[in-house]
Amino acid sequence: MNDAAFAHLEQLLDTAFERYPEFLRPLIDPRKAQDVPWKGDVARTKRFLEWWSADREFRQAVNLDARAADRLALGVDAEELRFVWDEEFYAGIRDRKGWVAPKSVQQYRAWIGEKFRYRERVRRQESVPQDPRHAAWRRRQVNRTLGQLGINAHENIIHAPFAIELSEGCSVGCWFCGVSAEEKKTDFLYTEENRQLWTGILEALRQRVGPSAAHGFMYWATDPLDNPDYEKFGLDFARICGRFPQTTTAQPQKHIERVRALLKMSAEHGCTINRFSVLSIGTFRKIMAAFTAEELLHTELVLQNREGNTIQSNSGRARGSRELDKRAGEKEMESEWRGAPGTIACISGYLVNMVQRTVRLITPCPSTDAWPNGYWVVDSARFRDAADFAAVLDGMMERHMPTALRASDRVRLRPDLKLVRDGDQIHLKSYGLVTKIIGPGRIEPMVQHVVDGTMTAGEIAIDMEDRFGLPAEEAMASLNWLFDEGLLDEEPCRSTVVAAPLPSPAAPGRIKETAS
Q1: Residue 364, φ and ψ in degrees, nearest 5
Q2: If DSSP codes are grouped into helix, strand and coil, which group holds residue 436?
């Protein structure tokens, strides 16, 4: 969503809520949503669309006859909702003069608009770390991933400041795991000693990333419900970081009452949206039977089941797999789908594992042979205690998060960019973006230096001054613009630390990395 579209959405929602409070009100805050009379109607519309998306047979039946939805007693009129599930109907009626969507459709679309606005606010503002070094580094990664991943993937990545794993490995074992979670080994339990370490880690993160700590979360290549003390850790997180973290689990059907209480607890402590990853149609039906539509209004169902109308990311264990290829065939995906870059990574910051006492600095990237799990590992270290952890974070920021190029930095264009000359313009083309650089004469040799990648920033600035009379500070400003836009190559070396096991927990200090 570009700036203009975001501003339009903001204005549209604000105007709608102000002018039509009798049937349109904000629902995004679960606590305030309790007072909205039509909350249940929106929840039931959401549930109908979940059935339509998850169950192939239901989808086929409703396409033939909208009254087929009545068999599930969902409490909605599928014909009235046709605007949101029938693409042909939507295309034919949206611009028809005088047509107005039913109130049920308007209410649901306002709810979806709120979720889009919430996501954009988190990505654009609320997840930005307060340390200027981390903020500048994150901004470059946001710009880079737009070009490398394309707009659709880019808009779903919030670039959160950190994630914390409370277990080692995952018990679920999804065939498609986008980050290749290992088999479950052990958990970080809520003992007094661990509680003290945990709160120290959270305080160190909160001090460095500021209010954006509220958008960190407590899972990665783990399932939150594997840890029996997840809720206790979450309450500490809410107290120190500002809200209960968003939860995504692939096993809600195994822990119905625990999950029911967790959803209530997280909403009471400021969490907005949670997610269930649905692995099979059987699991989907169990979820539908166990939870009311209202209970799951603020819980998104990520449909991973074969009968659903979505497909997994081509990353991690799914990357290049026969199963993914088979499912793409079943869903009649376009032939280009495999060429689309895949990742489920959403962190531009710190990945912490409390069992191993490790921290890694990571950021999303397309899944490749070098980075199959769809994220770069920029740096890795162990920590002994909270003070050591804080020192590790400070060291990572100092080494990897400059706010501007140094004269000694070797400067080269990202390898995925293709340079195309068009008159007095230079186009830098990537998978998802074209960046235009306008200006004849001196611009082209500077860009050519960056393409060649053999000179430092200082050497380029001196060359431009000597050959073209361009003041060195202006040349550095132009190079820093390329840097800020994420157009320069910051990809880390493929270190042995990415594949090799980390040192034993007793080993202090930094991990020595050796480029392969």
Answers
A1: -65, 150
A2: strand
Q: Are 401 and 137 in contact (CB under 8 A)?
A: yes
How large is the average pLDDT for residues 166-173? 96
Q: What percent of the chain has pLDDT over 90?
A: 78
Four-point Cα dihedral 329, 335, 336, 341, nearest 10 = 20
- Contact between 187 and 227 under an 8 Å Cβ cutoff? The reply is yes
Amino acid 514: pLDDT: 28
Count helices and strands in the chain by DSSP H and E runs: 18, 12
Domain boundaries, the chain: 3-116, 127-400, 418-484
SS3 call for 244: coil
What class, spelled out in words, does domain 127-400 have in CATH?
alpha beta
Q: Which residues of 357-366 are buried (b: 16+ CB within 10 A; e: fewer)?
A: bbbbbbbbbb
**How far apart are the C-alpha atoms of 160 and 361, rounded to whole Å?**
12
Q: Check: CB of residue 176 under 8 Å from CB of residue 304.
A: yes
Tokens for 269? 């402590």
Is residue 501 pLDDT above 60, yes or no? Answer: no
CB 372 within 8 A of CB 221: no
Residue 441's pLDDT band (cuts 50, 70, 90): low
Q: What does the pLDDT average to over 120-124?
A: 95
Sign of CA dihedral 209, 214, 219, 221: negative
| Contact assessment for residue 175 and residue 318, using Cβ atoms and an 8 Å cutoff | yes
- Cβ(227)–Cβ(164) below 8 Å: no
The residue that leads in pLDDT, 508 or 152, is 152
Nearest by Cα to 219 from 269, 156, 171 = 171
Identify the weakest region by mean pLDDT among 161-170, 442-451, 506-515. 506-515
DSSP conformational letter for 496: G
